[in-house]
Amino acid sequence: MKPKFAVLFDNDGVVLNTEPQYDLFWNEQGKIFHPELPGFASYLKGFSLEKTLEVYFKDNEEDRITIVKRLYEFEDNMKFDYLPGAIELFQVLYEHNIPMALVTSSNDIKMEKILRVHPEFKKYFKAIVTSDKVTKTKPSPECYLFGARELGVDPSNCFVFEDSLAGIEAGKSAGCFVIGLATTNSREKIEPFADTVIKDLSEASYSFLIDLHQ
């Protein structure tokens, strides 16, 4: 039987509590490489590493190499803790046979690190879409279109959980119903762009999605 709908999750700031750690890393690098942009991390929300390098480090190959090396070393020591409600929502959707995909701006290298900590991702997600699987990353809709296609569900029957403006734009452009999470940005900042906004995944449930889908 065809599923009623599918659910596509962004990762950082939606499923895993990594954004505060990345803020520390990128703000520190910003002081070194882009002192003219205070709060450098805020410019990168939803960006893949490739897009970050393309936009902010395109003119200096040595800087690009340095940033990548530092980032990978930093990620080796990151904590990949769940945000509230994530694993509980995965389990209940899994029990109701709702197909799920993880759609992230992270590359395969980082995803391998996460899967070592959270092998259960392979149980819950029928597809994991990384930046290495698409030609254009968020805010392009390509990643969410890819995810919906992998699940065999039309984008119009897909829910997207996102925390970044770039990710919200990607989900909306793909034709999905986008639920914004006020985990990284304030509710006021994302409300004009998302279809609805919740605090975090603890406010989502199977019945919540059923009501939205009707």
From TrEMBL:
SUPFAM superfamilies: HAD-like. It comes from Tritrichomonas foetus. This is Phosphatase/phosphohexomutase. Pfam families: Hydrolase. It comes from the Eukaryota. GO terms for molecular function: sugar-phosphatase activity. PANTHER family: FRUCTOSE-1-PHOSPHATE PHOSPHATASE, GLYCEROL-1-PHOSPHATE PHOSPHOHYDROLASE 1-RELATED.
